[in-house]
Task: inverse folding
């Protein structure tokens, strides 16, 4: 299921030692050499989990531990796309011949997470099986510790990112967070479910040294603690289901307040409507607030100048087995934070946009409307699955760019064959999105930034697939983007980064039970 010289292995072992105790261990390894120069990606992901409940059902525990390492070679994209890619010159059908911006950079992300959630119920009605209607009083604790380490390395400085302070380049950002929550949950068949909590969030985001630039002193650390209290409520009244949640920050500057309210009504067995309201505020992500690099331009400190992002949204949903599922969501964001380039037209024409990347905040509101519709039509053994989405952004400045129209349609055939010994499914998927000013990718930050100089998109993607299941084994084959050779070389995942050519993916999934 990789491009070239690669493989993918995903394996998991689970152990049910009893009805009350479960363990799992899993590993996913991946390596793939891309079609273009210096584009190999590899990763390793380890995960383990445990679930336990006592015989009387009063104490419950869930825990997991994960570790991952993702390493990617970065080439900055193709440097002469008009001549070598879009022209369909047969000399460059072998994509490894296409020139890229550099072949000496890579980024690495290493992360670990430890999670524990447990609860003890003091009062419990054993006769009720539905937890939403049972009577109990429980006290719980949730603990999460997570560490992340991000590296960007380059053998020598490159004008692609501007002037360097030292060479070779070796950037490193570190983040350690710890979350503790103590909660009490009360459930009553008449009053509903009420959960109150208090939580402590510690964070430590740091670099190895301080820097003084022309713009001022840049520290090497953001460290603090956030204390918040919260409550959640759930109650079913006839066909109505009510949800509510609130979190109030009583100490700390990073996070803010959160309000969530939702209600749904089951009209009948085939139709359901729901509505939800969300409001939240918090400072932008850490790399918007503080960053340090061996490249001179990639050093900033914005905790004093950036305000908290404030987001409010209202959403309506209709789920119908007859008419399909439709959702409409309207979101308003104040102090929207984004990356953009300060390069002028001459610098942009010289492919130096990445040398002038900076984080910014939009002072005016950004309003976003999304309407999404899903419906599947069935005709005997055939089915047509359709997802259509419309998006509209109202803004004074073009800081959030999205395609106005997105569609995904799949026509497939499903049937048991060979005297029902095999379940076969095969079909074609069509994907399309309208053209827009697609966000560009920055390999140093491993982030996307807003650009308004190049409009991309409006190309079709066609995939052919076969899925076959025999007992506990499943075989799949997918011919992805098989129309790439006859619809023109105008397909991009980001500016200067072409979407993948036609590729065949094949895999086997087999579950063993003992």
Result:
């Amino acid at each position: 299921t990789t491009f070239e010289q690669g493989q993918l292995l995903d394996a998991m072992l689970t152990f049910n030692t009893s009805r009350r105790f479960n363990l799992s261990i899993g590993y996913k390894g991946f390596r793939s050499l891309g079609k273009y120069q210096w584009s190999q990606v590899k990763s390793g992901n380890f995960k383990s989990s445990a679930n336990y409940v006592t015989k009387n059902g009063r104490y419950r525990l869930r825990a997991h531990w994960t570790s991952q390492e993702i390493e990617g070679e970065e080439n900055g994209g193709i440097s002469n796309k008009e001549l070598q890619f879009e022209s369909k010159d047969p000399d460059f059908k072998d994509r490894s011949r296409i020139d890229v911006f550099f072949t000496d950079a890579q980024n690495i992300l290493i992360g670990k997470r430890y999670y524990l959630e447990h609860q003890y119920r003091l009062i419990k009605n054993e006769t009720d099986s539905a937890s939403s209607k049972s009577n109990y009083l429980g006290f719980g604790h949730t603990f999460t510790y997570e560490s992340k380490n991000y590296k960007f390395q380059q053998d020598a400085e490159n004008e692609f990112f501007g002037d360097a302070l030292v060479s070779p380049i070796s950037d490193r950002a570190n983040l350690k967070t710890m979350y503790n929550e103590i909660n009490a949950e009360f459930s009553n068949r008449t009053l509903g479910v009420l959960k109150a909590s208090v939580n402590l969030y510690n964070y430590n985001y740091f670099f190895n040294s301080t820097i003084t630039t022309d713009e001022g002193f840049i520290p090497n650390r953001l460290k603090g603690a956030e204390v918040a209290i919260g409550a959640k409520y759930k109650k079913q009244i006839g066909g109505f289901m009510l949800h509510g949640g609130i979190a109030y920050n009583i100490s700390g500057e990073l996070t803010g307040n959160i309000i969530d309210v939702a209600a749904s009504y089951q009209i009948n067995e085939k139709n359901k409507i729901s509505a939800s309201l969300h409001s939240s505020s918090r400072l932008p992500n850490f790399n918007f607030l503080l960053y340090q690099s061996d490249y001179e331009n990639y050093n900033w400190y914005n905790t004093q100048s950036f305000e908290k992002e404030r987001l409010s949204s209202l959403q309506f949903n209709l789920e119908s087995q007859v008419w399909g599922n439709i959702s409409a969501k309207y979101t308003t964001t104040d102090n929207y934070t984004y990356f953009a380039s300060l390069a002028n037209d001459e610098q942009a024409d010289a492919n130096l946009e990445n040398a002038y990347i900076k984080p910014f905040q939009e002072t005016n509101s950004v309003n976003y409307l999304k309407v999404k519709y899903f419906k599947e039509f069935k005709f005997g053994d055939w089915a047509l699955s359709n997802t259509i989405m419309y998006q509209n952004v109202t803004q004074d400045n073009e800081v959030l760019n999205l395609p106005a129209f997105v569609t995904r349609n799949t026509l497939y055939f499903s049937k048991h064959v060979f005297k029902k010994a095999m379940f076969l499914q095969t079909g074609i998927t069509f994907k399309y999105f309208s053209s827009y000013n697609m966000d560009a990718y920055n390999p140093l930050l491993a982030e996307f930034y807003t650009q308004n100089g190049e409009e991309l998109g409006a190309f079709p993607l066609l995939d052919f697939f076969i899925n076959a299941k025999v007992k506990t084994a499943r075989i799949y084959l997918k011919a992805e983007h098989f129309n790439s050779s006859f619809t023109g070389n105008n397909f991009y995942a980001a500016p200067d980064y072409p979407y993948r050519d036609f590729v065949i993916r094949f895999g086997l999934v087999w579950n063993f039970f003992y």
